[in-house]
Amino acid sequence: MATNQLSPKIFACSQSVELAEEIANAYGTKLGNVITTHFSDGEFQPAFEESIRGRRVFIVGSTFPSTDNLMEMLLMCDAAKRASARHITAVMPYFGWARQDRKDKPRVAIGAKLVAKLLETAGATRIMTMDLHADQIQGFFEKPVDHLFASTIFLPYVKSLKLDNLTIASPDMGGSKRAYAYSKYLESDVVICYKQRQKANVISHMELIGEVEGKNVILVDDMIDTGGTLTKAADLMMERGAKSVRAICTHPILSGNAYERIQNSQLTELIVSDTIPLKKNISKIKVVSCAALFADVMHKVQDNTSISDQFLM
After folding, report:
1. SMART domains given for it (predicted)?
2. Residue among 195, 199, 286, 300 flagged as catalytic
3. Which side of the chain, N or C, has fewer Cβ within a 10 Å radius?
4. Among 100, 143, 127, which Cα is nearest to 298's?
5. For strand 34-38 and strand 44-48, is the pairing parallel, antiparallel, or unpaired?
6. What pLDDT is stored for residue 308 in this prediction?
């Protein structure tokens, strides 16, 4: 009986039910029961429909827009705390608001820091996420952060393509560290795109640092929003003589006309994870599941064993 009391439970926020079900299956259990009451003014209230007293609770929910997704995670953490859960792990495959990680101009908020404090105040005792937009966001938390790398799931897929003359590319200077990590594992060259923005999501100018002629290029980034940067980079590389251009992006935000832009681009393929559910399926998008990775790390957290073997870079 005591062992049963300490066995973990996995719950899903409404925006990530499909991924949470896959994680629970890979873990070897079923999702816990959550009922959400919706009020006519748009307010909502999630409630656990089973006892979680004394248990480790994993709450799975990516916090992409709208803000209701973040609010639901906060409410579920608070509910778990008030229901006497022993440990509350906020499993956020996509950590929203991460692009607001610093003051890049006067009089702006640092949204990522605010979200970190909200999660801790709500009751989260541990955070589990993947490919943060900025690594230093881990330092915004006073609680443990398990920061997983999507390279663990993407690199085997890239190897299965068996591409010759492979070159890894970063779509901007900020992603160069990620690109070099991939290139080191794949023993390939690296090129970097230098871009200047007119404003958010609008690129005024882009240049390429490095040679891509006759190369099979794979662009690597943590997220894809409007698709403007990647499609512009793909066009530039094909103009410079690249044999093919693919892209790996962990988090498929894909807002605006991103789907049409990707489908009509010179990208051979866009490889994404399922941290954010796709709004539509198109032929150029390949989804690689992160469920098994999260399930394995959750097992290790429960058993208090090292997760370092999950880091391929």
Report:
1. Pribosyltran_N (SM01400)
2. 195
3. N
4. 127
5. antiparallel
6. 84
Q: Tell me, what amino acid is at 132?
A: L
| Catalytic status, residue 243 | no
One-letter amino acid of 224? I
Looking at residues 211-221, what average pLDDT do you find? Answer: 96
Beta-bridge partner residues of 156: none
- Long-range CB pairs of 109-114 (<8 Å, 24+ gap) are 112/137, 112/140, 113/140
CATH class for the domain made up of 149-288: alpha beta
For 65-98, how does the pLDDT look when each residue is reduced to its tens digit (9 = 90+)? 999 999 999 999 999 999 999 999 999 999 999 9
* Closest-CA residue to 253 (of 219, 230, 283): 230
- How far apart CA 137 and CA 8 sit, in angstroms, is 27
Residue 5 has pLDDT above 90, yes or no: no
Q: Hey, do 7-147 and 149-288 end up sharing a CATH topology, with the first three levels equal?
A: yes
As a CATH number, domain 7-147 is 3.40.50.2020
One DSSP character per residue, 226-253 reads SSHHHHHHHHHHHHTT-SEEEEEEEEE-
Q: pLDDT band at 1, cuts 50/70/90?
A: very low
Q: Is a pLDDT exceeding 60 seen at residue 277? A: yes
Distance CA 172, CA 279 (A): 26
SS3 82: helix
Closest listed residue to residue 148, CA positions, set 297, 302, 306: 297
φ, ψ for residue 165, nearest 5 deg:
50, 50
Q: Give the residue from 251, 246, 262 showing the smallest Cα distance to 290.
A: 251
Give the predicted TM-score (pTM) of the model: 0.92
Sheet with 216-224: list strands edge to edge. Answer: 202-209, 189-199, 166-170, 216-224, 244-252, 269-273, 285-288
Token pair for 96: 């929203």
Closest CA to 63 of 78, 55, 74: 74
Whether residue 218 contacts residue 186, with contact meaning beta carbons closer than 8 Å, is answered with no
